[in-house]
Design a protein that fits this description.
By secondary structure, the protein is an all-alpha fold. It has one domain (2-188). The chain has six helices and no strands. It has helices spanning 2-23, 29-60, 63-93, 102-112, 116-125, 153-188. The chain is globular and about 55 Å long.
C-alpha cells in the first residue's frame, strides 16, 4: 500500500506541477487542500483494483491466470461497463440504443452506480461516469466535484458522502475477503 501511495503521490505531483508550470497560476492553501483530497480519492479508487488483484491472486493459485482475470475485470469495469449498461437499459425499456428518453436514462443512471468508477467520477468531477456509454442523467448535486471552488468542502462532503462511503468501504471489504481467502487456503493445505 505504501508503494501505491507513492505512485499516486508522484502522479498527482507531476500532473499538477505540469499544469501549474504550463499555466503559471499560483496555488493557494485552499487549492492544495483540494489537491490532497483528490490524491486520497485516487488512492482509494486504485486500491479497489489492488484489492481485486490480491483476491484473484489468492483464489486462482496461478500468477498468469490472476493477471488475465484482473485485466479482464479492469477492462469490463472501466471501459466496457458503461456501454454494456447502456445496451441493457435500452433492451429493458424497449427504446432504441441512440434514442434515449428519460426512462432509459434513469435506468442507465441507476445501473451505473454498480461500478466504482461512478463513485470516483462523481466525487472528483461531478460527472456520473467516465466510461464509454456512461450516458445518464446529470446528478442534481450543486457542486461539480472536489475542484468546484464555489462550494465549501463541508458542502462537498454533504453531497458526496454516499460516494465516499463506497470508495472507503469497498477496498476494506476486498482486503478482508482476500485475508479470509488466504487463511482458508493456508489452513486447508
Amino acid at each position: 500500500m505504501a508503494t501505491l501511495a507513492l505512485v499516486v503521490g508522484i502522479a498527482v505531483i507531476a500532473s499538477v506541477g505540469t499544469m501549474l508550470f504550463g499555466t503559471g497560476v499560483q496555488v493557494s492553501l485552499f487549492q492544495l487542500e483540494r489537491i490532497l483530497i483528490f490524491a486520497i480519492l485516487t488512492f482509494l479508487y486504485i486500491s479497489i483494483f489492488v484489492g481485486i488483484g490480491i483476491f484473484l491472486s489468492i483464489v486462482s493459485k496461478s500468477a498468469s491466470n490472476s493477471l488475465i482475470y484482473g485485466i479482464a475485470i479492469w477492462l469490463n469495469v472501466v471501459v466496457a461497463f458503461g456501454a454494456i449498461i447502456a445496451v441493457i437499459a435500452s433492451m429493458i425499456t424497449g427504446q432504441p440504443f441512440l434514442d434515449f428518453d428519460n426512462p432509459t436514462l434513469e435506468l442507465n443512471a441507476k445501473m451505473q452506480k454498480f461500478t466504482p468508477l461512478h463513485h470516483y467520477a462523481e466525487t472528483v468531477s461531478g460527472v456520473p461516469s467516465f466510461s464509454w456509454g456512461g450516458i445518464s442523467i446529470q446528478s442534481s448535486k450543486l457542486s461539480s466535484g472536489i475542484f468546484d471552488t464555489g462550494n465549501s468542502l463541508d458542502k462537498w462532503i454533504q453531497e458526496y458522502w454516499s460516494n465516499l462511503i463506497v470508495l472507503i468501504t469497498l477496498p476494506i471489504i476486498l482486503f478482508i475477503a482476500s485475508f479470509v481467502a488466504f487463511l482458508r487456503k493456508d489452513i486447508t493445505l
